[in-house]
Design goal:
3% helix, polysaccharide degradation, globular, 49% strand, GH11/12, 13-stranded mixed beta sheet, five-stranded antiparallel beta sheet
């Protein structure tokens, strides 16, 4: 049996589910010697809003940052990600996380927040980075360009380069992709992740890997995460949902696998379940459900229990126990690199077997390649999850 554990990547703040409506986008460009700030209201609904903030360093490189601004109409920050945000009356301070403190010349740092408002929600117009007022130019010069009165369209998420440190991660839309190398201790190799940009839902991304060592132990699982992963990171996921609610959780996934020689790996969904609706970072899951679409010389934890037909396809059904939780694996009897599924069909099958209570909550949907050994790439050309 493969011992499986997960990295505890803590969220900057606990995200709560909100209902958004289509809105215009407000953008502020604050100008300052050494820095520029772009503050975008990306979604707004009655009494609440989301904002994305991008800092551009136009001066000397910094190893840590603290961005300050003031709200003019009583807005309050309720949660944040990629930064620690505090507020004292109207004054707001955002400080870097351990993984994003360094900003080189012309480099950027990004974070997001949720907040509340009443009456109006004007965009802040003055920011300071590490105590220096941002004017948008590294040299004193002409009067800064006035703030736009007509909001520009929201751009797609830009592509990233290859990120190869185990601490690297990508935030894109309601998903995030950590360079998860949870089983690499004692192994030899490396892994990289990247995003090909896009609207944030669906997403397009990839990972490359080369690992050697024990062929029966998982080295890494770079995955697109929706929802909980030892904490909450991104807002508006639609999760958690109670299994008994019988909600649709539909997903589309298209990917390409390139293997350099023999490998032990699989490409799979990984879902987590908890007995409570809002688990924290210390709340271990009780159940794990995997859906294997593609495999090469790899087998799930536990033992095979038989087969079942779901979504017009035959699946091997495996059952085991890992760490403190039960694990159920549905392994496609023939490999595919394209799938359209309703995860509800699989959870209902688990419940019908008497293995899991329908009172449990689906808290996370993840998807990516699980690498034991080998070298290659998995490129996702489309990935999307919708909670009905």
């Amino acid at each position: 049996m493969v011992k499986r554990k997960r990295i505890a990547l803590l969220a900057a703040a606990v995200a709560s589910t909100v209902v958004t409506a289509a809105v215009g986008v407000a953008v502020a460009h604050a100008a300052a010697v050494g820095c520029a700030v772009r503050y975008t209201v990306s979604a707004q609904w009655q009494g609440g809003f989301n904002a994305d903030v991008t800092i551009t360093n136009l001066g000397e490189p910094v190893t840590s940052w603290r961005l300050t601004w003031a709200y003019a109409s009583g807005q309050r920050v309720t949660q944040a990600w990629n930064a620690t945000v505090t507020q004292d009356l109207a004054q707001v301070t955002a400080a870097n996380m351990p993984y994003n403190g360094a900003i080189g010349l012309n480099g950027t740092a990004n974070f997001g927040l949720n907040g509340t408002w009443s009456g109006s929600n004007p965009v802040p117009t003055a920011f300071a980075l590490n105590g220096v007022t941002c004017t948008g130019s590294s040299n004193p010069g002409p009067t800064p360009t006035p703030t736009r009165t007509t909001p520009p369209p929201v751009p797609d998420y830009p592509p990233t380069g290859r990120l190869c440190n185990s601490s690297d991660l990508i935030d894109i839309g309601k998903y995030w992709i950590p360079n998860n190398q949870w089983g690499a201790t004692g192994a030899t190799g490396s892994q990289c992740i990247w995003s090909n940009g896009g609207p944030g839902d669906p997403i397009y991304w990839g990972t490359s890997y080369t690992w050697s060592g024990d062929p029966s132990s998982v080295k890494s699982y770079a995955a697109a995460i929706l929802g909980w992963h030892w904490g909450w990171r991104r807002p508006n996921t639609g999760l958690p949902v109670q299994v008994s609610a019988n909600r649709d959780v539909t997903t589309n996934w298209r990917f390409n696998v390139t293997a350099n020689g023999s490998s032990n790996m699989n490409v799979a969904y990984d879902m987590w379940f908890h007995p409570m609706a809002d688990p924290g970072s210390a709340d271990q899951p009780t159940d794990e459900l995997m859906i294997w679409l593609y495999r090469s010389n790899a087998s799930p934890a536990g033992s095979r229990q038989g087969t079942v037909t779901i979504a017009g396809t035959t699946w091997e059904v495996w059952r085991g126990h890992v760490g403190t939780w039960n694990v159920y694996s549905y392994v496609r009897t023939s490999n595919t690199t394209s799938a359209t599924l309703n995860i509800r069909d699989f959870t209902n099958d688990v419940v019908s077997r008497g293995w899991m209570s329908s009172s449990k909550y689906l808290t996370s949907v993840q998807a990516g390649p699980e690498i034991f050994t080998g070298s290659g790439e998995v490129n996702t050309t489309l990935y999307q999850v919708t909670v009905g």
